[in-house]
Amino acid sequence: MTILDVQDLRVSFGGIVAVADLSFTVDEGQICGLIGPNGAGKTTTFNLISRLYQPDSGSVDFDGTDLLRVPPHKIAHQGVFRTFQNLALWPGMTVLDNVMVGAHTRSKQSVLSAPFRFGTRREENRLREEAYAILADLDLAEHAFKPAAGLPYGTLKRIELARGLAAHPRLLMLDEPATGLTNAEVTELAELIRDVRDRYDLTMVLVEHHMAMVMAISDKVVVLDFGQKIAEGTPQEVQANPEVIRAYLGGDA
Amino acid sequence: MSLPKRIAQGGRNHRLYLLGSWGLLALLAFLVPFLFAETFAPELFGNKYTVSLANVNKSLAWAVAILGLTVLTGFSGQISLGHTFFVGTGAYTSAILVEFFDWPYLATLVVVIPMCLVIGLIIGIPAVRITGLYLALITFGLAAVFPSIPKIEQLADRDGWNTGGSNGLRVSKDLETPSWLPTNGIAEFLQGIPLIGGMFGSDGLPRRGADDVYVYFLLLLVAAIAFLLVRNLMKSRPGRAIIAIRDNPTGAQVSGINPAAVKTIAFGISGILGGVAGVMFTMMAQFVGPDEFTTNLAIFFVVGMIVGGVGTLGGSIIGGLAIVFVPAWAGQTETLPIADIEFGAEFGPLILGVLLILLMFAMPGGITSGFRQVRARLVQIIPRAPST
Amino acid sequence: MDLFLARLFDGLGSGATYAALAMALVLIFKATTLINFAQGELALLGAYLVLVLGVEQGLPIVVAVFLAMVITAVFAAGLERVFIRPFDPSDHLPLVIVTLGLFLGINSVAGVIWGHGARDLPSMFPDGNLYSRGVANLSWVTVGNVATVLATAGALYLLLNKTKIGLAFRAVSSNLESSELVGINIGRTLQFGWALAAAVGTLGAALAILTLFLEPTVMLRVLIFAFAAAALGGLDSLGGAVVGGFVVGLVRSMGVGYLDFVPSELGVGAAVVVIIAVLLIRPTGLFGSEQVQRV
């Protein structure tokens, strides 16, 4: 069943078309890889779906909801969460608190209840336990009480993933999760992503440059070049597509 | 025993540690008014430094004002140089209600809190768009406007209630110690303790200032409640949201936090605390005037916040004490061993300015961060994993 | 009509002094992207120097103003070296606090040295009016103020756009890191900015004192309007500072004059309301450059 339906998405910045009439769909439970050369518009597509950019035209339908009608901060409430290429964590907070912020949409305490602790302690304990469990799940428990600042890049990437999981999203979008990781770490990450998808019941879209990983874990791959979709299909289909080979190698291959 | 001493969170030692440190603090807070009721004047380099209880009370009020600034600037990252607007509004409203409508002092909070909340929200809405130094300049403008408001003819020279114009408004209702509170008895008891009794003076509380002790306890209660509520808030979901918006708005937004709403609410909360501080000021001073709420005071609030430590609750108390006592003591400094100059009250702001710059060189995180560094060498709390 | 002219002249005259101080603020902002809260007090110090040189030492007033500008510029360069340069230029909070500390310190020193009594400064411009019509008088002071400010703005424009140090200054203000890479001496350039700002501020104070009395708190009152002018024009635009200064001056004189419900005490209030309105539409002022944020 289709859960994410992107139709004719288009945006341009100062006359340069970054994403041109892009359409693709993702089925529930799929891992969809979004690949393409540098500047192909992959991250821009992420920014459009997560509403950080405003598209010129097109539609983004998530399980029957038109995401373009949802304000940016309400996207998470719809069950859509994302990570960032350059990380968007809070260096001053502890790792545990970072993950707990991810659960913002899943808690109810407000400025009226929190100062007086009207029934907030139980929820707070529950959030803390869940956040810690997710960290333990991703082998991050030892870092839980450290401030995020100063931890290695690969660890921070996993913390961002943990934050996403704390929101219990239905669609998790990962922006270059393998960047800056060693080969061994990439293998581990690939396993982790599949594993997480199964256990947390997720649909995933990932932008990634690490071809081997994308091909290994994706159920479906969408290839972009100069903002346009040039191919779509299973990893095998895409790898055999002459257009794709040309885009990556240049010239007439 | 090797330092730092490691204590497991939630264990018996941790409970003892918490009980001990908070108990000491509470005992100190309890003893303070009796120490200072009869002017307590330590000497240094031949200068006498007085610690009047009235000044302690004023520090409590300013600590709550700085707490408001801490929420706004420290946690929410929005710079305000105009907190006197809230403090002044609270103080004037309280004074008018007490003087002309015979309300009890504390009851005026019922009006002041919603009023300052609304003003805070109104200022908070444009502040979502106008940020950084532009916001600082606008709020500074508000601070500059405030002293003119009570001088407006329609408010100063009207029949019935009025602001008293340039002369200010004296509140005639005294806060008298209720008969059930045996402050005098406690003072006599403390004075009777061998060896240290002399520190508390003799012959009970002096008649003048006896009620200051009562006001102290009232203000301490208000301040304690304010601090507790803010602490609870900051350790919860809305508190995390406020900090998340400050440190990484994008990350906060994709996590489902509404930046505009959170920033506006932070302004509202900060406004409330400013208003409460104003009521506290009226209680201790029994006087409000346009010259009490100047731009200088607004700057002093920021100074106090930074001296105490930006983004720390305890720093607000240190800041409140600093902005009252440093200028007061600077004014009482007549000689210093460094130079043969006659000092006087006019040197107050100079000494405060010099201290401020020195502090930035020596301890840029404020006094609280310095304190935490020292504490970390002595005691280390090992956090406990939540049980699952 | 006469009344309108009177208010126009009044607004232009005070607007010129706001513009001068706003230019000083903008110079510092361009150099360091921070607000120098001590700017007004440096200017105050300059005004007292004019008093010492021009009145007590009997120098011609124009010479006194020029010397005061030079002395405050040197003093500001020294302040920059001692108090500002040791800090990381990209971490703003400590720097703002240091300028607040300087503000408190300089103000207090001025009060100690020169007392709190109001003093008068001799005028740089002839007495009397250039033009009179009913209650409206266009005095030589107003004309002089406006002309001096415009000339200063022109001189600054030439200095920043036609000289080597001006080029360095503009480079540092647009990109600190790249400037360092191409070999610009950052510290020297920022010091130049401080000195220049102090000189312009002193000139502004000397103009402001022509219509006000010199006392330790006088600059604080003017500074609020200068802040308003700088924010209105855009904190990094010199031209904006000039325009902002005149707009704020006119808003104050017209607003208080024509709107009956605005009591004269609320002149500052009228200015603040206008700035909020402008900033809501353009958050970085009329002529300020927009801050671009990348995701």
Structure description:
The complex is a heterotrimer of chains A (253), B (388) and C (295). Chain A has 2 domains: 2-79 and 169-249, P-loop containing nucleotide triphosphate hydrolases (Rossmann fold); 90-153, no CATH class. Chain A is 34% helix and 25% strand. Chain A has 8 helices and 10 strands. Chain A has a 6-stranded mixed β-sheet, with helices on both faces. Chain A starts with a strand and ends with a helix. A two-stranded parallel sheet of chain B has the order 1-6. A two-stranded antiparallel ribbon of chain B has the order 2-3. With 388 residues, chain B is mainly alpha-helical. In chain B, β2 and β3 (47-48) form a beta hairpin. Chain B has a domain at 53-292. In chain B, 64% of the residues lie in helices and 4% in strands. The mean pLDDT of chain B is 86. Helices cover 72% and strands 3% of the residues of chain C. Chain C has a two-stranded antiparallel sheet with strand order 1-2. The radius of gyration of chain C is 19 Å and the shape is globular. At the B-C interface, α5, α12 and α14 of B face α4, α9 and α11 of C.
Give a brief rundown of this model.
The complex is a heterotrimer of chains A (253), B (388) and C (295). Chain A is of the alpha/beta class and 253 residues long.
| Structural Rg of chain B | 22 Å
| Average residue pLDDT of chain B | 86
* Cα-atom radius of gyration of chain C: 19 Å
Q: Would you list the SSEs of chain C in sequence order as H and E? A: HHHHEEHHHHHHH
Strand content of the residues of chain C, in percent? under 5%
Query: Quick one: how many beta strands of chain C?
Result: 2
Give the oligomeric state of the chains in this entry, treating copies of one chain as homo and distinct chains as hetero.
heterotrimer
How many individual domains of chain C? 1
CATH topology of chain C: ABC transporter involved in vitamin B12 uptake, BtuC
Label the structural class of chain B: mainly alpha
CATH class of chain C: Mainly Alpha
- Flag low-confidence runs of chain C: none
Q: What fraction, in percent, of the residue positions of chain C are helical?
A: over 70%
Shape of chain C: globular
Q: How many helical elements of chain C? A: 11
Strand line-up of the largest beta sheet of chain C:
1-2
Structural class category of chain C: mainly alpha
Span from first to last CA of chain C? 54 Å
What's the CATH architecture of chain C? Orthogonal Bundle
Number of helices of chain B: 15
